[in-house]
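Memo to structure team: turn this sequence into structure tokens by end of day. - J.P.
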Amino acid sequence: PVSNMAELYSNISKNAFDCGNIWIGCTSRWTGLYCGFFEGSIRLDELAARAAHSYEELKKYKMLSFSATTISLRQSALNFLGRNPDATVLEGDAIPNFNEFRRHNEKNETEGRRVIWMSLVVAFWNGDLDRAHFFAIRNASHWKKEIPAWHSMLMPFLRCLLWCQLFARDGKIKFKRKARKEQKILKGFANQGISNLGWMCSFLEAEMMAFVESTPQKMVLSSIGSTYKKIDAPMIKEAYDKVLADIALSGDFSNFAALAAERAAAYFAGRYRQRDPTTILASEISQSYLKEALDRYGRWRAISKVRQVKFSFRGVLNGTSLVESSNFSVEDNIFPSGPTNLESV
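Reply from structure team:
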């Protein structure tokens, strides 16, 4: 994935329609929206409205081979916007019945794969690890068929993040093995010279250090290289800071920067709960990352994530509620650059 793909495809679509090429115009439009979702370069309220328009356009020109992807994209945006009571399920205004929608689109192999992919995305990002696990297993069985599509490199990346969280939660060695395997896949693509995978490799490095390889008072093999290093809290903070710096250099992917900040906050909040004497100012560090995550999610209009993060971190730091101690409010203050247009979505 490279930055500014949404803008690139938007320009292609406009030029194609101007030249009378309907097929290129329609396909480029929905591809631009798809890229904009994963880049975080299009606000979710705007993306949901544009996806609805794109779907109507596909119906108008009888180009329904891409309709399931477009509908899934719109429903994903609506989930993040808080329009679905359960943001982890790809169901709501755009997809009234997910199971029926999935069965219907299994007939089209490409569309079926992408329904599973978007189901994995919303389940993982909104915190249902077990549901995400179900779709990750299915995505892992066929994701290579998406190569060289723009989003294919995100698949092993997101699955690795999931395996890291499942290992941290359950301690099962199979998840550690899966995480290492996915990390190796992504590093392999990066070594082949595929552009802009650096921030993803940095992200996986931080997650592996924090939640998989980190063992207190024990020398562990660092995935950075072949030398043994003791992984400690300052190293992990440096690793997450590098992730945020690398994403900033990429030009887009602020939504993934929010996720990185959220994961860093989770690590340091965990150290604070354990009263780890080697971690100085863990609560302040966690609070700082948390505020960055909330700010970035708010700018993306990810209301469901703001709510989830506040709920997950309630009462963790200094024995007080982060909702009470934070200046962020879901309804009033998470939108620093203007109101969210929910009427159009």
